[in-house]
Amino acid sequence: MKWYQMDVNDVERKLHVFTEKGLSYKQVEQRQKQFGLNTLQTAKKQPIWVLFMKQFQDFMVIILLAATLIAGMLGEYIDAIAIMTIVLLNGFIGFFQEQKAEKSLEKLKELSAPKIRVLRDGEWSTIPSEQAVVGDVIRIITGDRVPADFRIVKSNGLETEESTLTGESLPVEKTSTAIKRDNLTMQDQSNIGFKSTLVTKGSGIGIVVQTGMNTAIGQIASLMVKTEKVITPLELKLIELGKVLIYVVFLLTALTVGVGIYHGQPLYDMVLAGVSLAVAVIPEGLPAIVTVALSLGVQRMIKRKAIVRKLSAVETLGCASVICSDKTGTITENKMTVKEMFLNNQNIFVTGEGYATTGEFYANDQKINNTFPNLESMLLYGLLCNEASLLVKKGKYMIDGDPTDGALLIAARKMGLSHVVKDQFKMIKQFPFDSTRKRMSVIVEDENNRRFLISKGAPEMIVPRCTFMMHEDGRQLLKSTKHIEAKMNHMAEKALRIIAISIKPLQKGDRLDISSLEKDLTFIGLFGLMDPPRKEVKKSIEQCKAAGIKTVMITGDHKKTATAIAKEIGLQTSENDLVLEGYELNNMDVNELVKMIDRVAVFARVTPEHKLKIVQAFQKRGHIVAMTGDGVNDAPAIKASNIGVSMGMSGTDVTKEASSLILMDDNFNTIKEAIREGRNIYENIRKFIRYLLASNVGEIFIMLVAMMLALPLPLVPVQILWVNLVTDGLPAMALGLDPPETNVMKQKPRDPKEGVFSRGLGFKIISRGLMIGIVSLIAFMITYDNNPENLTYARSVAFTTLVVAQLIHVFDCRSEQGIFSRNPFSNFYLIGAVLSSLLLLLVVLYVESLQPIFHTMSLGLRDWLFIIVLSALPTVIFGFSSKR
């Protein structure tokens, strides 16, 4: 269909929809079945069997399978079956880990899907964009991504940026007029909005004409469908580590085999033992465990109202040293409330919190009502010159529109004025608020056909246009504005946002020209509004300070308002904490700002353009910056920052796309919690790296030293593989779920250049690993010396000592300060994992049918006491040294 050629009425008839009502839910259900979801096709997922087979692509596993095949051909059926079973179990564990990671990431994509405003059965609602159908009536505003191809019905200065489709960088002005010309390219279809393009200006309403792969961008997407896998910097480091380990393991395996053959061990036994040791030592599951740990951490962040769009952001969060936070809605509640009024040269105080419509009015400590001169009129003017509306959700009032307008509506409700009163007035013309004029004006007509202009906005824009002022006894000439300015300063010092309101009587013949109308106004009064700080913000800022993270407030408010809030929440605690205004930023370059930026606590009267300069200055100072924002113009600063944070409730789609973290509740405390979680995830990854590699060092040591001492093999290949299965799987995963340590937010931010083995981790791995290997070898040597005729008994003791030592060591890995610094029962997942591993150990020791397979035998009470004492030695020794 050539929708651009059709009049709006024809589009409505063709799609069986009315613009004023939208589709019915029955129509929506039918069309979803007919057209499917409004999504672009993505690369097909790999079949489950392919994902499973990928677990056996590792070079060492292939060598082991080949050795197993040889063992079977030589008649060693029990060993061959046992080793094959363990390899399969390892494969299943890796498979389920990858599945878990994929499912976590899929849930993440669902949560971060963009929303759209749609009209159905006469009511506007917000739904995921994928649920849009052909015929839906949708509304878009500045900053939105267009959710589907749609025919524009109403355009209010609407412009879209279509470079993703056409390559043209300049925005395209959109209209609702039908274009009767034929064979138009996309660039010339000015009445069509295209899916995935960006609304850069204005707003509009339209009817969806194509969805999903039938849209213009869908046709492009069908030519090239692919999915990119993002690898985090940490994963890259671990891949490099794995390559190094392979070379080390090859060397050690060759050394073990060579020494064993030199001392008379059979070639076949030594090759199989060497390969088994290599497979056990290489932590091939490490990247999978890291991915799972990251994705599980992401899920925990979602529960804390933070959506991570990029896994790499999880690592960066732990390095954050500066948070540049918006004030409104992030540090404050974004529930503007009228707290004070200036009327008839008197102060009036208003009670009531948030959006509750109950409250009282007081003048000179006396309760007043609608008989107070001009009070009801002032509230009525605020109600009429207003673009917001009140919605009721779950029994509570919510604001649909600007919070400042919403506060005036709530104040009017407290006096008993509502939309019913507003309906008694006829709206003649409206001049919307914009950032240049800083005011809004409306022309209304009352029931007696009298017209008047109402103007409200920033006092500095309203008061100079006033010639008169309303007093108790009527309108008087405004001789001086000093008393008004003094009141404005007094309100600003109390962190109140000030709105001035004025009126002007009109005649029906007057020209409706805004430049001539907004003169000789009559000043009515001032509204003082407060957006109170969130209750938890002060404590969160204190915790960030203790964690070495500087918090900076960025706001478009006046300096006095910003300073008052900063002092209340503990941001500005001394005269050394500077407050910079936007005009000062204009007069300095980035290098000048760098010299003083560490002393700045607040940036006031800041434009989005200033934010980029602030980010660059902090980064030049060596900081890792988290920058918050919600508007389209914030996107460059958010993209330039190390951690871009967008607002999930008030943020535009383009800002969300530029960010790496989305706050679902727009709350500063959520940023702090995300940083805490990011730090914990990184520390947990270090924990299981420490655990896995130390365990592997122990396994290498016992085998290599035994060969050098011309001892029999302390462990047979199937035992080595079983140790790998029992100790590397569940306990390592459980470490990834470890709760944060109490001091995680009392440490300085991590250096982003820090290596995986920094802060003494390399020493801990080698020292603990050697001790585990030493005690296991001692257990073997003592048992073998006392019973040289019973090699199976000695191997069983060594095998058990190695497993138990590693399972005790896992608790030591939970803290840098040692095993005694944390409650061992604070991680129930780890307790369950260790108990499961012990149970598996007992199974191969005491189930008679498995003893020939694993070359084990039952152990007595004296053996267990001996094993437990030896196994605990490494952790106890290093635990006491850490404690000191």
From TrEMBL:
Localisation: Cell membrane
Membrane-spanning segments: 56-74, 80-97, 244-264, 270-296, 688-713, 719-740, 761-784, 790-808, 828-847, 859-880
Domain Cation-transporting P-type ATPase N-terminal: 2-76
Reactions mediated catalytically: Ca(2+)(in) + ATP + H2O = Ca(2+)(out) + ADP + phosphate + H(+)
SUPFAM superfamilies, per database record: Calcium ATPase, transduction domain A (SSF81653), Calcium ATPase, transmembrane domain M (SSF81665), HAD-like (SSF56784), Metal cation-transporting ATPase, ATP-binding domain N (SSF81660)
One cellular component term from this protein's GO annotations in UniProt: plasma membrane
InterPro entries (UniProt xref): ATPase_P-typ_cation-transptr_C, ATPase_P-typ_cation-transptr_N, ATPase_P-typ_cyto_dom_N, ATPase_P-typ_P_site, ATPase_P-typ_TM_dom_sf, ATPase_P-typ_transduc_dom_A_sf, ATPase_P-type_domA, Cation_transp_ATPase_P-type
Membrane topology annotation: Multi-pass membrane protein
Keywords: ATP-binding, Cell membrane, Ion transport, Magnesium, Membrane, Nucleotide-binding, Phosphoprotein, Translocase, Transmembrane, Transmembrane helix, Transport
Keyword Zinc-finger tagged: no
Superkingdom field: Bacteria
Gene Ontology terms for molecular function: ATP binding; ATP hydrolysis activity; P-type calcium transporter activity
NCBIfam families: ATPase_P-type
Family, as annotated: Belongs to the cation transport ATPase (P-type) (TC 3.A.3) family. Type IIA subfamily.
Protein name: Ca2+-transporting ATPase
Annotated organism of origin: Pseudogracilibacillus auburnensis
